[in-house]
Amino acid sequence: xxxxxxxxxxxxxxxxxxxxxxxxxxxxxxxxxxxxxxxxxxxxxxxxxxxxxxxxxxxxxxxxxxxxxxxxxxxxxxxxxxxxxxxxxxxxxxxxxxxxxxxxxxxxxxxxxxxxxxxxxxxxxxxxxxxxxxxxxxxxxxxxxxxxxxxxxxxxxxxxxxxxxxxxxxxxxxxxxxxxxxxxxxxxxxxxxxxxxxxxxxxxxxxxxxxxxxxxxxxxxxxxxxxxxxxxxxxxxxxxxxxxxxxxxxxxxxxxxxxxxxxxx
Length: 265
What we know:
- The protein is of the alpha+beta class.
- The chain has two domains: 4-104, Beta-grasp domain (Ubiquitin-like (UB roll)), CATH 3.10.20.30; 107-259, Fumarate Reductase Iron-sulfur Protein, Chain B, domain 2.
- The protein is built from nine helices and nine strands.
- It has helices at 35-46, 107-115, 155-165, 172-176, 178-182, 189-199, 207-214, 228-232, 239-259, and strands spanning 4-11, 21-28, 65-68, 71-74, 88-91, 98-100, 103-104, 121-122, 134-135.
- The strands form three sheets. A five-stranded mixed beta sheet has the order 2-1-5-3-4.
- The chain is elongated, with a radius of gyration of 22 Å.
- The relative contact order is 0.12.
- Residues 138-146 have low confidence and may be disordered.
- Residues 125-151 are annotated as: Disordered.
């Protein structure tokens, strides 16, 4: 194995560039080094102007997502040795506006997550005002708001939503999704998987509210089930499966609303 490898890094400095370009850097090729280590070497020793995001270096925070040799990856989990002898192309995530170099704008992604109300919605209680019920998050220890009632979960109940709770909001599924690339109004795979995480939680009572959002044209029905989102996920979440499951739920609820008298269940 050679002792160095070439990184071909996308550079874009809006104050001086009209479009992105490519810059090459030679970095040490060490068995334990990930692409992120190579970028950190560039930043520390070769070019301090290079811009990118990272935090934990452990595949937990989701902030170091980039396109590595054409695929969306966590740069802390993509090892340089796997791309030897190189070169390795490092580009910003696809389908997002680029702010600078490898840094993308995430505002649209964050707003889409908020639309699905990714928190436990308490069951409304008779005789209590709206401010006391409805959208209230379950905090640590299983307590709801300021109440003292515990909402414990059995292992079987946790198994229902555990897979979808593993999402780290890295946005790789959005970068891989051809639908989001063509239609930015599509709410996207991570938001739908996150909605499913709470819908499957036995403590939550917000499924109907989320369905009102996700049953729209730019919700679940925009997905054409390519499946790239699931393949790209570094945490083995299955957004494509969540979307198909949600489609069945939406179709069932629509049929019930059509066939059953108003107010019936």
